[in-house]
Specification:
mainly beta; 4-stranded mixed β-sheet; 4 strands; extended; MmeI_Mtase; MmeI-like DNA-methyltransferase domain-containing protein
Length: 83
């Protein structure tokens, strides 16, 4: 049990009116409850990944969205103090 990423908008620049135009990048992530051992919620749609390419949003249905907001497994790199 836990959560899964139902949809994600990969990083995109956020326009602002700041005097020196501070660089701001945004991601949008939607979460839903994951009930089954395979990480899928009952009757749920496939996760959707959104990418901004040439100033247009493109969507892609994927089997799973990784913690790095790309299509892939839930594997994450663990931190280490020594190599």
């Amino acid at each position: 049990m836990g959560n899964r990423i139902a949809f994600a908008y990969q990083t995109f620049p956020w326009a602002n009116n700041a005097k020196d135009k501070a660089a701001v990048h945004v991601v949008i992530i939607g979460l839903e409850a994951a009930y089954l051992s395979d990480g899928l919620s009952p009757n749920s749609a496939q996760p959707k990944l959104y990418k901004l390419l040439d100033k247009e949003w493109h969507s892609q249905s994927v089997a799973n969205i990784s913690p790095y907001l790309i299509a892939g497994s839930n594997l994450a790199v663990a931190s280490r103090e020594q190599p």
